[in-house]
Amino acid sequence: FLFKKYLNLFMENQVKHIGTHSGTFHMDEVLGTVMLTKYTKEYKDAQITRTRDMKVLDTLDLILDVGAVYNAEKHRYDHHQREFNTFFSEQHKIKLSSAGLIYKHFGREALQSAIDSILNHYNVKLDIDKEGFDLIYQRLYDNFIMYVDAVDNGYDQYPKDVKANYKINSHLAARVARLNPASYETATDDERFKDAMKICDEEFREQVRE
Fold first, then answer.
1. CA 63 – CA 49 distance, rounded (Å)
2. Spatial CA neighbour of 136 closest among 167, 169, 103
3. Mean pLDDT of 12-33
4. Which residues neighbour 105 within 8 Å (Cβ) at sequence distance 6 or greater?
């Protein structure tokens, strides 16, 4: 009995703890959480804490989209602070969201893990050299992650004086936003956050597969 008790305590201490803000969730922190907990070795299956209590957040191994600090060495990945001015590269003009920050620092590992998972699922063997991998990494940012950054940071897709002929409400950001529970629903924010993670995980894998 004592051995089992100490073993469980040891295992609990080995589990990483990551945090993000409570309340209404958005596409960027959901996707960032997916990349970390599904596709990185260090944070795979990490326990997720959603709170705005800094006393709690300060105890966690990594936090994203909350805390008003961007410090990769301390694993703090927020982008809401006024002085934040980080881009994916010198060629990019859209500031990073928390998803972009996670991709910038963990994206290569997450991408490789996703590729391996997809190839294993289809029982396919494929050798990708460094040049090819770098190209996929860049394209995944340009074709997907940058969209997440842009939406979360309020960048317009086209000039404001151009009137759209119709609206699109089925994109990933809208699908994630709709999962936030209404006041008359019994589901909790944390329950719906997990549902949103499933959607973002599916989209991430499909974007990699393409």
1. 9
2. 103
3. 93
4. 72, 77
Distance between CA atoms of residues 144 and 149, nearest Å: 9
Q: What is the pLDDT of residues 111-139, one digit of tens each?
A: 999 999 999 999 999 999 999 999 999 99
The CA-atom distances, in angstroms, between 207 and each of 36, 50, 200 are: 17, 27, 10
CB atoms within 10 A of CB 185: 10
Compute the distance between CA of residue 15 and CA of residue 101 in angstroms, rounded to an integer: 22
CA–chain centroid gap for 91, Å, is 22
In 3D space, the residue among 187, 153, 159 whose CA is nearest the CA of residue 173 turns out to be 153
- The candidate with the shortest Cα–Cα distance to 28, out of 113, 120, 94, is 94
Contacts with 62 (C-beta within 8 Å, 6 or more apart), sequence order? 16, 17, 18, 19, 36, 43, 46, 75, 76, 77
* pLDDT (mean) for 67-79: 98
- The least confident of 2-16, 34-48, 59-73, 157-171 is 2-16
Beta strands 17-20; 70-71: pairing state: unpaired
Residue 118 · residue 46 · CB < 8 Å: no
